[in-house]
Design a protein that fits this description.
Elements lengths: L7 E5 L2 H10 L3 E2 L8 E5 L6 E6 H8 L14 E4 L3 H14 L2 E9 L3 E7 L5 E6 L1
Parallel strand pairs: 1-4, 5-8
Antiparallel strand pairs: 2-3, 3-4, 6-7, 7-8
Pfam families: Glyoxalase (PF00903)
Organism: Chitinophaga pinensis (strain ATCC 43595 / DSM 2588 / LMG 13176 / NBRC 15968 / NCIMB 11800 / UQM 2034)
Protein name: Glyoxalase/bleomycin resistance protein/dioxygenase
């Protein structure tokens, strides 16, 4: 198997809230893939995409239930920062945008510095600089 591209699909309860959160954090909307059922954003220079579908749209299409991200981890994406200062600034932006800091910025392991946050639907992201 040699995939042409990979992206992620998350379930959310409110598209407008999700759109506002990721826009406030500075992620670039993937305009052609926005509709009444989903919003989509680019998450890196390599254009990794995460689609955020309304939960009641996504579950029938995957033939099963999505986990509740507030109580269980689906997957934790890691976002790499260019510097400690950039990472600290990102940490300051999460809560005003509507997210939650799970673990404040801290040093961990040799040469690693990072924090963990959740979006309004509980999806976790690990942000670090190394």
């Amino acid at each position: 198997m040699k995939p042409k591209k990979i992206w992620a699909n998350y379930a959310v309860s409110d598209l407008e809230r999700t759109s506002q959160f990721y826009t406030k954090l500075g992620f670039k909307p993937n305009g052609p893939h926005t509709s009444k059922e989903l919003v989509s954003f680019f998450f890196s220079d390599e254009d990794f995409i995460i689609h955020f579908f309304l939960k009641d749209i996504l579950e029938p299409n995957i033939k099963g239930k999505m986990s509740d991200a507030h109580t269980a981890n689906e997957i934790v994406f890691t976002i790499s920062a260019e510097s400690k200062e950039e990472m600290d600034n990102w940490a300051k932006e999460v809560e005003p945008a509507g997210g939650k800091i799970v673990s404040p910025p801290e040093a961990f392991g040799k040469g690693y510095y990072g924090f963990i946050f959740t979006d309004p639907d509980g999806h976790k992201f690990n942000v670090f600089h190394m």
